Fold this sequence. Notes:
Elements: H1 2-12, H2 17-44, H3 47-58, H4 62-69, H5 75-85, H6 87-106, H7 110-136, H8 146-204, H9 209-214
Helix pairs in contact: 2-7, 2-8, 3-4, 4-5, 5-6, 6-8, 7-8
Amino acid sequence: MLANLVFETILKGGWVMWPITATFFLALCVILDRAVWWLRYQNTLDPANQEKARNAIGNGDFATACKLGKNTADPFLTNLSEGITHAHTSMLAAMQLHATQLIEKSESRMWVISTLITLAPLLGLFGTVMGIMGSFSFIGDEQLAASKVSGGIGEALIATACGIGIAILCLLPYNFFRKRVSVLRSSLERWINHTELLVRSAKEHGHDLETFAANPPQP
């Protein structure tokens, strides 16, 4: 019953409703993709081991910190492992490069949602124009054909409403995901800066990370 109602609404909205419908399904797919990605990201976080790794770095126990970063899906611990592994060249650069890759993944396909926020209302407006033009084409006939005129106006209203609705559907998740990306970026910056301070503190106490990275202990 609901499917029939939707199909009838699409038909009443004119041919412009087909690209509008396509934008709806595209938006839905991208939003679901981003939601799944963030849920998986949240499930990989391991605050307890993050704290253990920070303590190990501060105490100069780089082997333990490196071990915590191996065989884990936690992006922060993986970031730390990348930094320790490449400390003999540039720990900071390695961690920043890994962080950049993670942020790029978090922003993946966000441009699609941004585009649809603008495109959907424009398609709705285009449908409005086409509907009104169709209504005016009946004016001047021998009979006013009021039903045809009202049909054109209805077509215009349906297209406009659907276009605006899709924009709203995209706008709320888009702002939510952008906020999550911003928080992730800030968290990674704090993590990297804190790690750098801990490494410097350990070095002042005679624990050299560069020497450890150049000659890592054999498993």
